[in-house]
Amino acid sequence: MDNRTGKRMAVKRMRCQSSEQLRRAQKEIETHRELSSHPYILPLLDWGTKRIPAGHIVDMLFPLCKKSLRQEIDDRVLEHRSSPWTKDELVKLFRGVCHGLKAMHDHSPSWAHRDLKPDNILLDHAGRPMIMDFGSVEVADVKVTSRSQALLVQETAAEHCTMPYRAPELFDVPSDVTLNARADIWSLGCVLFAMMYGYSPFECEFHGKKVVVVECTHLRVIGRLPEPPEELKRYPAFLEALTIAMLRKEYKHRPNVDRVLRELDTPDTPDTEPGSQRSIQNFAQFPPV
């Protein structure tokens, strides 16, 4: 607790026993410092590093938030301890997440979060989302030119990117490819699906009206999306279409975060009601990147 203001704080303590762990902790501090003024990024209030015989201890001080988006999804979608979000509430919350991610992608050089998921999005006491946990952050645009480099990127993703939210291009990285920020768009699509149905589409199945958790595998990620039953579809069809667009296997055909925000800001039309057929063609093609 801050003795001056009476506000409660949260301390994140990291025990770094290798130079790579220390580098990632320092990168997390750098990212927070660069973006702390953004309303949808968790602000870093203070930090410190202490050397110990086994390495370093890095402490980071943050404001104490109400809960994570994961906990809010559990309350509203799975456990029904709170009423489900209305369409406007869900769109407002998701729009905030998109703005936080946009701040990272607009940074120079562009940053990719690489582990965006509901657990890494906190909600303050007003319900505003704030992205956190930047230990996985990398420069977004990575040109891979060799098999050894591809394996390194792949191994780093396996260590730092949670599987049900990990983009398919990070599972089996080609030896000649340029990766970019649209890996985060895949994760964003998984987050939106989880806000509507409780889980990432790659860690659940639908058995009637029941959502069943299953093991996430690479085959699930590259397979077909599970189809939610009509009884569980409570949001406008354009949100379903936008989710499908963000989860395109070919990253060049996913929208960037600016396009996602434009779609969220598009006024409602009569064909945006649940179960309607708002044209998915709106999301069918995006300029190659």
TrEMBL record:
InterPro entries the UniProt entry points to = Kinase-like_dom_sf, Prot_kinase_dom, Ser/Thr-specific_kinases
Q: Which organism is it from?
A: Octactis speculum
Give one Pfam family. Answer: Pkinase
Residue runs in coiled coils:
none
Q: Gene3D superfamilies this protein is in?
A: Transferase(Phosphotransferase) domain 1 (1.10.510.10)
Q: Name one GO cellular component term.
A: cytoplasm
According to UniProt, the reaction catalysed is: L-threonyl-[protein] + ATP = O-phospho-L-threonyl-[protein] + ADP + H(+); L-seryl-[protein] + ATP = O-phospho-L-seryl-[protein] + ADP + H(+)
Give the UniProt keywords, A-Z: ATP-binding, Kinase, Nucleotide-binding, Serine/threonine-protein kinase, Transferase
Q: Where is this region: Disordered?
A: 259-281
Please report the stretch or stretches of sequence annotated as the Protein kinase domain. Answer: 1-269
High-level lineage: Eukaryota, Sar, Stramenopiles, Ochrophyta, Dictyochophyceae
Q: Identify the EC number(s).
A: 2.7.11.1
The EC category is transferase
- Protein name stated in the entry: non-specific serine/threonine protein kinase
Could you list the residue ranges that cross the membrane? none
Molecular function (GO) terms for this protein are: ATP binding; protein serine/threonine kinase activity
